[in-house]
Amino acid sequence: MEELTKTVNNVYLKLKKISGMHTVVMSILFVIGMSLRLWYVNSFGIYIDEANYAYVGSAILRGKIVYKDIVHMKMLYFYFSIALIFFIFGKSIVYPRFIAAFLSTLTFVLVYLISKELYDKKIGLISILP
Description:
- With 130 residues, this protein is mainly alpha-helical.
- It has one domain (2-127).
- It is built from 6 helices and no strands.
- It has helices at 2-17, 21-39, 48-61, 76-89, 94-118, 121-127.
- The chain is elongated, with a radius of gyration of 19 Å.
């Protein structure tokens, strides 16, 4: 637990050091990346994997038990996260896609921090180009 706290504090301190023009550029790149991801959230059909995840997620909401009532051998965590998203927002494939797009965009910050640590701020910004 102490190690996790130390890691969180280190990430916080590194995020705090990001300032000035780099913050503006990083924010603009973040918005561009998020826009590109959201552009396609509802513009294509449902893939077979998405259909399976949506089916299992909605079945969990109906009280079915995974691996007993529903046989689909994938990650249990993902089923329950889809079920939670459906419970909160309603049953639409757009909501899990939106959350996935948002979370994948958040990786910009992580990639920037790693690149900046290994190289410099300029390389950090180049590494997060969408």
